[in-house]
Amino acid sequence: MQLVIDESRRRLLKRITLGLAVIPVAGLPLRSAIAADTPLVTADDPTAKALKYTSDASKAPDAKPGSTCANCRLYQGGAGSTEGGCLLFPGKAVKAAGWCSSWTAKT
Ligand code: SF4
Fold it and tell me: What is the CA(20)–ligand 1 centre distance, in A?
C-alpha cells in the first residue's frame, strides 16, 4: 500500500513540476495574441496628428536620424517587436518603425 501512495505522490509531483515549467512559455503566445489584437494608431487619430506621428520614421522630416518608436522610452513593445503599445496612445499600438514629436531616448 505504501508503495502505491509513493508512486502516486511521485507522479503528482512530476506533473506539478512540469506544469510550473510550462507556465512561462505558455504566457508568451498569450501576450503576443493580446498585442496582435490591439488596433494600430491611424493617421486620422487626433493625438497622432498633434504629435506628428508617422508609422515610418524615415518619412518624418523632424525625426532625429535613428530615432524610432522601438528605441523610445514610451514604447511598450518587446525587443524585436514590429509594433507595440505607447504610453501616449492607450489601448492602441504604434509601429516599431514609427516616430512622433514626443520621442524620448531610452536610457
Ligand atoms: S512617444 Fe515614442 S513610442 Fe510613442 S509614438 Fe512617439 S516615438 Fe513612438
Answer: 36
Residue nearest to atom 6 of ligand 1 (CA): 100
97 lines ligand 1 (CB under 6 A): no
What is the rounded distance in angstroms from the CA atom of residue 30 to the CA atom of residue 19?
Answer: 16
CA dihedral defined by 8, 13, 15, 18, rounded to 10 degrees? -160
What is the model's pLDDT at position 23? 39
Residue 100 beta carbon below 6 angstroms from any ligand 1 atom: yes
* Residue showing cell 505607447: 86
61-72 per-position pLDDT tens digit: 999 999 999 999
| Ligand 1 pocket check for 69: Cβ under 6 Å | yes
Q: Which helix (H) or strand (E) holds 47?
A: helix 46-50
Write down the pLDDT at residue 34. Answer: 44
Judge whether residue 41 has pLDDT over 60. Answer: yes
Contact 60, 54 (CB under 8 A): yes
